[in-house]
Amino acid sequence: MPRTPVAEHEARVRALLSDLSTRASEVVALADALGRVTASDVVSPIPLPPFRNSQMDGFAVLSSDVVAVPVDLPLVGEIAAAPGMPAPLMAGTVVRIMTGAPVPEGADAVVPVEDTHVSGSTVSIARGRVSGEYVREIGSDLPAGAVVIPAGVRLASRHLGALAASGLTSVEVTSPVRVAVISTGSELVEAGEPLGPGQIPDSNGVALAAAVRAVGAFVIAEGRVTDVAERFRAVLDAAVDAGAELVLTSGGISEGEYEVVRETLEPLGAHVDVLAMQPGGPQATASYRGVPVVCFPGNPVSSQLSFLIFVEPVLRALAGLAPAVRTTGVLDRALTSQPGRRQFLRGVRLPDGRVAPHGGSSSHLVATLAAADVLLVIPEDVTSLDAGAAVEVWDL
Amino acid sequence: MPRTPVAEHEARVRALLSDLSTRASEVVALADALGRVTASDVVSPIPLPPFRNSQMDGFAVLSSDVVAVPVDLPLVGEIAAAPGMPAPLMAGTVVRIMTGAPVPEGADAVVPVEDTHVSGSTVSIARGRVSGEYVREIGSDLPAGAVVIPAGVRLASRHLGALAASGLTSVEVTSPVRVAVISTGSELVEAGEPLGPGQIPDSNGVALAAAVRAVGAFVIAEGRVTDVAERFRAVLDAAVDAGAELVLTSGGISEGEYEVVRETLEPLGAHVDVLAMQPGGPQATASYRGVPVVCFPGNPVSSQLSFLIFVEPVLRALAGLAPAVRTTGVLDRALTSQPGRRQFLRGVRLPDGRVAPHGGSSSHLVATLAAADVLLVIPEDVTSLDAGAAVEVWDL
After folding, report:
1. Do both B304 and B337 map to the same domain?
2. Nearest residue of chain B to residue A104 (CA atoms)
3. I need a surface site. Which of B83, B165, B208, B353 has the fewest CB within 10 A?
4. Is A358 part of the contact surface with chain B (CB cutoff 8 Å)?
5. Secondary structure letter of residue B183 according to DSSP
6. Which residues contact A18 (CB under 8 A, 6 or more apart)?
7. What pTM value is reported for the model?
8. Cβ-count burial B96-105 (b if 16+ within 10 Å, e if not)
9. Does a structural domain hold residue B1?
10. Is B186 in Cβ contact with A83 (below 8 Å)?
11. pLDDT in tens, B66-90
């Protein structure tokens, strides 16, 4: 049976998830907004800075008084960075002023303290300043009513600082994608439960839920079911009822017996494929009660890498995250690859900067995957690579 | 006055914070462990896989029965991936077996279904398999008692998957650094409060707290005080009493009047400096009741960049995060720089991949900082750069 190209399934998942880009929004406090994505342009209700203030510790002057220097001028007061509006400056006088303090009406420049000498109530000014020097004008950073943070920005600390400087305390952000994660397999028990013969702890649910959270989405439900269609369907219904916008399943989609996901969803129109890739051949997409379902194989390495390849890029974009880092590395050894399969080999970066495959390619090697720090991607038409060859590297 | 080299202050902060590397630890559920750092080597109590199982859907055989092929063998049963221990395989027979199902005693290989043909209760095998083929041996991924995740690993989804596969439900991780953030300045009001003349919203506290959280530390206290020594001291005491391991302050450390941080901490041995950098000249370090205090200037851009330059690298390392990305870019235009100052210019990446300064260099431009996506770092001894010159770029 000819296998489906990876790119074809990639496009199918992307199309299935395209509706997710229409996001609801919610208003959150700035303290809770780190890493969230602005749902709309945020406008500053005030100008930044909100009043004309001094850029330096020094003396507020009328610039025409300091054209001819040196000049001695009487010191008539002091303005701190503190509440209150200072009295206007009389021409021919100066006031001491602190950084950030309001520049008084009548003054149009600040002479930094290092260009002055104070003796009693007289300030000797050694260097003149032109109008506007060391004065921060109202709105010189941002006028009132201007956009301080545009829509679609993933909020980092500097964005939250600008929102706070605008006097805002909350911000409208897109709601995270609500994802349900369902592990299938009669052999699975919840981690921590005693293992009987033939049983293994469910690791797919834990890994997929964490991978979902790591890219800013929200795990609204986690389920684990045996290979019984009614059980699976009940968990699917519960996920949809809980408001899941995307369901991820692992297991139950290959061509053996007891393939509960396939048996349930194929009659409902699921598209089930065997992809030209290793690991992760069997894959499916479906829609259940209008909710997109992306179905991964049950082997732990397969399900984790399938998420990374097909779903993570979509969720990253929705969370305003930059695409994952994909570079080219240099192989430290020769390797061979099965023709007609895109291979995703677990690998490590070596101290010399080269990359090497790590462990075997079998898809049950979950501890080996944990110890890897990169994936090496070998194209379908490449069957061998020499030591020193360039290879596509995905950072994990 | 000669200014202190940036590297000297950097080293002073690093030394001040060196005790933070001795971290307490806590045990958290796997669902809460994403992004946390393992405090100790984690050992798997079980072998991975925990029992010998099939890598394929196919037929479990005794390999010596399939040396001469084709061969017809009687099908005597079926083993699903489900609880229970299968009966031993009699030589000269085969059982159907699913991926992940236990390989019965007596069998030592699995023949994939695609190399077989079933007719009634007879399986024709077209291709032989040697002992061990398509059988996943107990512990072939990891033996029982071996380290599944070493100490010091920042837990990603694949690590949590391996811990769950080991039957674990929780993991010992280092406690996050407990940081207090204190903004000083009589001109500050809490964001959202009405602004009187001479007042601005406190943005430093919001931005620094978010920057602390963004690198995995914990904000244990946030405070904002006027330029009154007793108030500042009370907030410092409260932060230490709350268990802060690190205090960050903004404002109050330059040479003007009303410098509350300097006035309070210098008599207690604070080291106050003016650094050869722009923005962010005034900086200080102190120890208060045994707790390290790093003091930033009050201008919003200065305080945010000072955190990024001096404190963030230390917190990143403690959180197991990779160092921030620092690369070399190509300037799209000429620029000049003040001699004897390391300049940190806000900049943007242009569509053609070059970088350009963005907005002015004044340290009140908080909206301009928010709109920047890189910093351009100009060394102390460089006074001009041509268009096309290489420049150090820090991604924000």
Report:
1. no
2. B198
3. B353
4. no
5. E
6. none
7. 0.91
8. bbbbbbbbbe
9. no
10. yes
11. 999 999 999 999 999 989 999 999 9
